[in-house]
Design the sequence.
């Protein structure tokens, strides 16, 4: 057996012992700790941590979850990491979030469905169990597709709404997509729907320095929830969001962003479209507009990024090329189930 020290971002350290051949994630779970994870198969990257010291074995994962460069820097997927000596591992989440709880199904009803554009829709769910849910802005849930045994992961795009006690999600409409097909062709207000969660270590931390948010496509969802939270608690640091999409039809929820800009004195945003024939004022990718962020050259700022894997890699490369080092860099990759 090997002892592993888990250092959480709030300064708390917990120790777990791994059995021969046991992954760190399983050992932590046995010990009452739930390192944020979803797939357990080395495919999603949710359980990514950093091994500060010690030896370990790790295989059976895909590059979208952990790149070769990250592996060289001793980043690990705890669902695949098997310690071979005592280790010290840094977990990018607070100890409070990682206290194990028994996740139960949350039974809700569809309360609203809104087609935002040809490529995107929003839906809300409500109910007594939704009202009792606790989640951090930026986290996600697995939602069972009605009429099937399949689930799809979606980030909350709002905190609990006081007017109807509902929560919202954004969906990209994908041809032959299981959930988007249901929502566009079959769903009706009042339909029963089941959620499980929350999951994920991508959530808003205390805003103690300037924050740059980068959203790609429906990766805007978790930032809408974060901004919702900031309206509730107030904001004294500058926060800038760059929201990038591929085509004009993908550009949604601008009215909400404008509303947040009106409510939050220190919040600003930029929207850009990659397509050359776009009617949007700003064209290109999010990296083309990062240099206009005034605090990017300051010694301390935090960076939050949510988008598809190519976008995450492009931003990481841009930061390296420009020698930009955020104080903290939190990101979440997402891709369609197809």
Sequence:
């Amino acid at each position: 057996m090997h002892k592993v020290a888990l250092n959480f971002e709030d300064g708390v350290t917990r120790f777990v012992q791994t059995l021969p051949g046991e992954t760190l994630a399983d050992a932590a779970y046995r010990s009452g700790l739930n390192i944020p994870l979803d797939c357990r198969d080395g495919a999603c990257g949710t359980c990514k941590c950093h091994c500060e010291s010690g030896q370990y074995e790790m295989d059976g994962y895909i590059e979208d979850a952990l790149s070769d460069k990250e592996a060289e820097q001793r980043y690990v997927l705890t669902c695949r990491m098997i310690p071979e000596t005592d280790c010290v591992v840094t977990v990018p989440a607070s100890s409070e979030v990682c206290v194990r709880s028994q996740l139960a199904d949350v039974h809700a009803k569809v309360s609203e469905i809104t087609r935002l554009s040809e490529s995107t829709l929003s839906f809300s769910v409500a109910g007594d169990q939704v009202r009792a849910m606790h989640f951090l802005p930026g986290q996600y849930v697995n939602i069972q597709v009605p009429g099937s045994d399949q689930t799809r992961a979606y980030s909350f795009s709002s905190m609990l709404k006081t007017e109807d006690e509902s929560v919202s999600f954004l969906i990209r409409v994908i041809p032959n997509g299981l959930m988007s097909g249901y929502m566009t062709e079959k769903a009706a207000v009042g339909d029963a729907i089941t959620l499980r969660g929350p999951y994920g270590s991508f959530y808003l931390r205390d805003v103690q320095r300037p924050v740059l948010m980068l959203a790609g496509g429906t990766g805007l969802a978790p930032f809408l929830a974060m901004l919702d939270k900031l309206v509730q608690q107030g904001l004294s640091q500058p926060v800038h969001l760059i929201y990038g999409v591929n085509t004009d039809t993908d550009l949604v929820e601008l009215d909400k962003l404008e509303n947040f800009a009106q409510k939050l004195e220190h919040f600003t945003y930029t929207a850009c479209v990659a397509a050359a024939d776009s009617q949007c004022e700003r064209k290109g990718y999010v990296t083309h507009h990062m240099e206009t962020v005034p605090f990017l050259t300051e010694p301390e700022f935090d960076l939050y990024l949510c988008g598809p894997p190519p976008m995450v890699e492009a931003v990481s490369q841009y930061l390296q090329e420009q020698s930009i080092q955020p104080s903290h860099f939190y990101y979440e990759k997402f891709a369609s189930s197809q």
About this structure: Residues 239 and 307 are 18 Å apart (CA to CA). The first helix runs from residue 24 to 30.
